[in-house]
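Z., the sequence and structure:
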Amino acid sequence: MARTQTSSGQRAKESRENWLLRILLGQNEPDAYTKITFYILLTLASLFLVWNTVGYVALTFQHLIHVHRHVAIDTIFAERGAKLGFSAEEFTSRLTTLFVLSILCWLIVLSSLAMLWQKKTSYFPLLITGVVIYVGMLFFYLGYDYFRTDTSAFDKISLIVIFVMSTLHYFILKKEESGEGLSFFGEDDA
């Protein structure tokens, strides 16, 4: 009898702990392809969010970093800004704006992933908007040279992966919603 109460009590506790996940991700688990897409996009978007948050913190607290670690971040930013054609103040201001808006963009992308998990096609415009605004800021707000030289190959490849995987998944969902089957070779896979 005590064992039954313990296991039912444990289930109730687990149920209370998982309520937020159920609200965000829904009751049903998606298919394997959606799960794979979700986890890859979640990992990449989380990396971008963390990296931009670290950049913002480093930029905001550069004086503390200089005092405690003896790293002159303001000098590093000023030199890099000058090479890109900005004054030190303008480059710092633009980087601050970039980091704040990038954090918001990646939060939007992460929130859209809850809809992807639920297999709602409405995730796609939200996700793409966040990514396009982020890339647009890199390319247009800080300039082509910044995008070309200061955006790593890993970041560029990750952005391509996010775009391609989300687009492919979106079209698969649209076909699934319309009741059409998928045919990878132009024939029915019956």
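The CA atoms of residues 7 and 13 lie 10 Å apart. The radius of gyration is 22 Å.

Let me know what you think.
H.
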